[in-house]
Amino acid sequence: xxxxxxxxxxxxxLTLILPPLQGAVETKDYKASLFGIxxxxxxxxxxSIQKAIDFIHDRGGGRLVFDVGRYLTGTIYLKSxxxxxxxxxxxxxxSPNPFDYDxxxxxxxxxxxxxxxxxxxxxxxxVIDGQGFTVANNLxxxxxxxxxxxxxxxxxxxxxxxxxxxxxxxxxxVRVEDITLKDPASWNQQYDQCREVTxxxxxxxxxxxxxxxxxxxxxxxxxxxxxxxxxxxxxxxxLKSHDKNAVCQNVYIHDNVVRTSANGIKFGTASLGGFxxxxxxxxxxxxxxxxxxxxxxxxxGFVEDVVVDGLKSINTGNVIFLRIGERWQPGKKGRMKxxxxxxVYAEVPEKKADAGYNYEGPWxxxxxxxxxxxxxxxxxxxIEDITLKNIEIxxxxxxxxxxxxxxxxxxxxxxxxxxxxxxxxMFKELPAWGFYLRHVKNLxxxxxxxxxxxxxxxxxxxxxxxEGARIKGLAVKEPGPKKDxxxxxxxxxxxxxx
Length: 498
Known about the structure:
Elements: H1 2-17, E1 29-31, E2 40-44, H2 46-58, E3 62-66, E4 69-73, E5 76-77, E6 82-86, E7 90-94, E8 102-104, E9 107-114, E10 117-123, E11 127-129, H3 132-144, E12 164-169, E13 172-177, E14 180-182, E15 189-192, E16 195-206, E17 215-218, E18 221-232, E19 237-241, E20 247-254, E21 257-260, E22 265-271, E23 274-297, E24 302-324, E25 335-347, E26 373-376, E27 383-397, E28 432-454, E29 459-472, E30 475-477, E31 486-489, E32 492-497
Parallel strand pairs: 1-3, 2-4, 3-6, 4-7, 5-9, 6-10, 7-11, 9-12, 10-13, 11-14, 12-15, 13-16, 14-16, 15-17, 16-18, 17-19, 18-20, 18-21, 19-22, 20-23, 21-23, 22-23, 23-24, 24-25, 24-26, 25-27, 26-28, 27-28, 28-29, 28-30, 29-31, 29-32
Antiparallel strand pairs: 8-9
């Protein structure tokens, strides 16, 4: 008996001093109905949902599980260790009243998580519906009544006072998976200065109002964005840097499908700090107004060590746009280097790619011929160490030499525009239909195939102020009289090989 007691005491002691095995403790589930949370779509559940989150957090964490129904709420705050789990048929619905939302760190949102750990929103087909169109228009009404102050530029409130569906700030260990996120009044979901973020298997229906980005990753470290199906009225997947002392880094974006009336995958426009070590693999961008891939270093920050491998771009107005500028800090140029883009297939349409969207991209920078892909630095700040490999672009061609013409004998007339907002169409008319390359250093182009459907007066590729370029395996197909596909101007060390 004495030996048995000693054995039991030793077992208890070991249990106390040894850490639990990872995964040995299951997450506890709490039904939303347990807290009196109503699923009728009319009862405002803000206080009861928050009470449930606080209760679960105080007891070490777990999942707050929502079953079939519509759960109306204003702003709620996730706490460490808590996951909201939406079963099939469960819809978390944003209140239509703008006064039901809080503002934190200059942003308004339905779901906040601020400096928390191990938080998540998961599901089995559940939905978060921000009712953004209704909320935004109700906000416009409050502004007209004088109850909310806002300049109402273009008859729309500022993005920051329209609620996003999700805003997480300085959180570690974030999971958002297996749900539908729809109809925000502003950006759909923003992760700001977070670490260890996983965003996977989402349906993102984000086209109810202006500025409806699909997902925004701001100055985060270690992020996976995968298997998203995005339909957005603004940029689909957008990396940003809002802090000049921060870096958005170690980001893996793969196997996503994106449709937008702006850019498919974009770095910027806000680029105060930088972007580093980003991998973009096996993505599809279609029916998109602007560029399939945009990288902008225009606010004094940098873009470095980026790999794009496997990009399909169908019915998208532009394929590749890389740009250095000095938008907010005149005299302080951004920098961009070590960029690899490979295994790209693209079809550029003759007409507007997002025609029929709820909120189409503006038909701007007209008149102009259809723009080429472009890589454009600034004098004294070239884009460096660029590799373009295994790229096939089908372009409509049809450039009219009498229409907003910039000829090869007047390339210096192409403006620099260092302070302008960066878009592929910003220069209006460019003298190439395939690639326009200006202020670039150390460029490699291998196995590039460019096909123009109609005769175009422009060259396939124009190289302007490029230092060191190697072009190998270039294939250009276009109707009309044969002309040299590459025009070189004020450049050195350019080699063209078969």
